[in-house]
């Protein structure tokens, strides 16, 4: 039971929450008696009453007992309360008081500002043709997993549910459209390895090679002979520097020494944020807005029928003209596009070191006339004329291409290539063997079995006559052939375009995939790489597939066809390639569970027959109409669907329609016509059927990876997951919002003409809690800029049905040619610190809790408006009206905006300033006074940086309790 204060302030209290004597807080001295105190009063007090009203009634009637206008009562001399007549007057005063009490209640329920019953508010709002928001269903993108070997059609309406935490309940979701799902599309991976691009143009700059297998007989400093082209006319020598086995891939990675004259090309780094401010801005970067559905996907005939679009050729040939059911046609269609010119033909390791004959002989002794060794000299190369003086001797031309090795090498055959390293001139060069001779050589006072080679070109110069040349020469012979393996793409040293899945519109997959069609939804998940020095930041974003290309990478030799995915919009983030997963079986779903229910039997003799759904919380889905939602309820009478209308008053007697009413508990009642305004129900047995969904509101905004259980499991379907959180769910309008919005709808008449109309239209749109519209310039032209906040400040994803429906409704019910921009509000968190002195006999804990509740209510999202300043007097007044507060001293009133929070330097400086606030001088005066006003800006265009800033909303957030600090002032 509730009581109303006698001061006519329309304050109402539940008796169970009152003390024995209490007041409304705005009329000190006027008391309300509770049942406990009423029970102690004499007389016929059987109901609670208000002291002021009953006493005035009783006092007035007793005074009029002696009035000359009532001569019949002159003989009633007693005024004793125990007398029956006086007791009768007292009882009648009580009756009059009760009557006035309920009259006041009825009067209160007749006005928006005083009504406290939700039913009254709803009916009063209907008088202005305003239908309160019933709430809206959340939307989400689900990724399904299909068992190997299956492909199936996922129907619209397939159910799944979330796995709740301890303080949550399971939420049901159903697919909004059908989807053809394939097992091979469960989780796609980007291409992780590719053929190594080794051609003659980069032969001297390449610094790494990947060899097949783990047993490559390669040692550091070994020369590698790279032969290019089909004619094998070009060879390059590179030396090995580092050998790194990679057992997991069964590869061997070798790092090559760079020639002194070669400089390594920059590998390029992915563009990433460097400063703290840039990192935070990158972290909260908005997702790109994808097309709403496949019908809105923009594709041109040039894109579809381009010659390089091999996929269209395959579909025409394989599926239409000559079904072959294999992908070999891709290899045929791409065979003439492979680029093999100047590619590496053969890779050999020259791991055998040989020496020219005579390189280890001792110096030639020179004897004097007495036969003693006078000195030692270097030998002349064998077969050089000994009579020729050293100064003028030259090596004969026929000896310059002769190489005699110090031993017999049977593995050398004509055509073999070898490398000769000349230490004296720091040169290594490749030669081909023309002729091989195994013979015994006698020279330099030594004899040996050797292999003598005739090379394709001279390796000695004409001045090379001294055996010292042989001592400084090393011959490198082939020890084996090497095979290149595919190199990983996710290397740190790889170019950024290969190392990262960045904000590009095309991704190459690791294989060839069929079943991918333009207009299909995909979800990209992985670890972000666009925030430098920050690891472990996981993200997911939904994209629409704009095109599929089954092609080869023309920059890679002998590449095989792979699938290339092109997106409708670029990715918002960059991802580390090795962490990326692409979900291919993705479909949109909405919150709610479908039920089919027989409501009862129609009776043509009854007017306005009613039925109530057995389950509460009817689901309403986002829709581009003025209300913002469309009901999921379908009513069938004798299997014929009837239509829902807003009112029966305009219907003809034959119109098959109905209206619905929802009470404060969420129960929905269906009301049919009376035969004059809308048709009556035809008589029948259980011929009234309803198909509807239940489930709505913020509870549907489940976190990512919470929807993991299938409500029904068709054959071949094994799992479901939501990589991205559900968004867009909003609860029904609160009583406060109904009072605020009831008059808004009639001002705009569901049309957006003026700037204020756009704001009013948004406020009445389900799921939008607050809105502000401004006519601004974006630097190029005049636009209408709208700043919105979700109901209860819910997050609104730009790819959610709620956001899409809202923007579409603005163009549909406003000027379709008016340039619009819709942004989310910039949040400002208020920071308040106050010292409070309480009255005697009051407890600080109780008073402090009431103060916190009052402040959080006063500056809550529901009470504050976009662009509304916060003044110090409001803070003081809110605290001062709490019972038990003597006085209040506010020492901090400040705020932190999202813009300030994005810059750590500015935020730290702000926090340091806040830490200094409240410090007093020796005289007890504050060093820095609190701000008298917190300015909250509307949307503005900053021409200096050419950027539009959304409007701000300043609130106290109970989720950050340290933003409100209360201290007790003690005597």
Summarize the structure.
17% of the residues lie in helices and 31% in strands.
Q: What is the helix tally?
A: 18
Helix content: 10-25%
* Global shape: elongated
Q: Count the beta strands.
A: 55
Average of pLDDT: 81
Largest sheet: 11 strands, antiparallel
* Rg over CA atoms: 45 Å
Structural class: alpha+beta
Q: State the separation between the terminal residues, measured CA to CA.
A: 41 Å
Spans where pLDDT lies below 50 across 5 or more residues:
1-50, 263-271, 321-325, 385-392, 491-499
Percent strand: 25-35%
Give a verbal description of the structure.
By secondary structure, the chain is an alpha+beta fold. Among the domains are: 2-108, no CATH class; 139-189 and 701-721, no CATH class; 352-477, no CATH class; 593-694, Sandwich (Immunoglobulin-like), CATH 2.60.40; 735-818, no CATH class; 826-968, no CATH class. The chain contains 18 helices and 55 strands. Strands 5, 7, 8, 10, 28, 29, 30, 31, 33, 43 and 44 form an eleven-stranded antiparallel sheet that branches. Strands 34-42-38-39-40-41-35 form a seven-stranded mixed sheet, with no helix packed on it. Helix 14 (801-813) links the parallel strand 46 (782-790) and strand 47 (820-824). Helix 7 (310-321) packs across helix 8 (328-334). It is elongated. Residues 1-50, 263-271, 321-325, 385-392 and 491-499 have low confidence and may be disordered.
